[in-house]
Amino acid sequence: MLNMVLPWAFGMVSLALLLSLYRLLVGPDVPDRILALDTLYLNTIALLVLFGLLQGSALYFEAALLIAVMGFVGTIALSKYLLRGDIME
Amino acid sequence: MLDAVLAILVLVGAFFTLVGSWGLAKMPDFFMRLHGPTKATTIGVGSVLVASALYFSFNTDGVSLHEVLVTLFLFMTAPVSAHMMAKAALHLRVKQVERTRSAVVESGVVNSYDGTPFRRKE
Known about the structure:
The complex is a heterodimer of chains A (89) and B (122). Chain A has 89 residues and is mainly alpha-helical. Helices cover 85% and strands 0% of the residues of chain A. Chain B: InterPro entries: PhaG_MnhG_YufB.
């Protein structure tokens, strides 16, 4: 049953990635683009975990954890830069 | 039985991820767009991660805790990053839809950044 559902899940997450990419390209202001990047990394984590389920390999979680940490730091740094004009004060 | 639970979790997770991104692409202004990714996408990714944790806990020996780590990290950081982005957008005064615009903030009586009254520099 899982093997039947996985292609649909891949399709939905890929569509979500495309919609986020649309907002990244179109987004009228800078915060919109930061939000789109944030959504892109969340979708990438979902796609990586689904791929791990498909392959039956537990190797992809290290990558997912790294993407989560680096994405969070990136979002905070960009927002802080917009807020203060500087990251470290 | 386990297979059915995993299938439902994966499907629900992918669906919520899609709904979050759809909201991001469709909503009219930034503060509405913030709702989709911060809530729907977080619960979607969390659901997929729980499915993965169950799968690897039952199919390999021992409990698989990597996914729980990622889930906890995401659920802790999503509100923080949303708060920072909203602060940045308020600071930059991005465009808002007419009906969500606050008359008090627009008139300049209070600071849009933290809601405190404006005090001019001497």
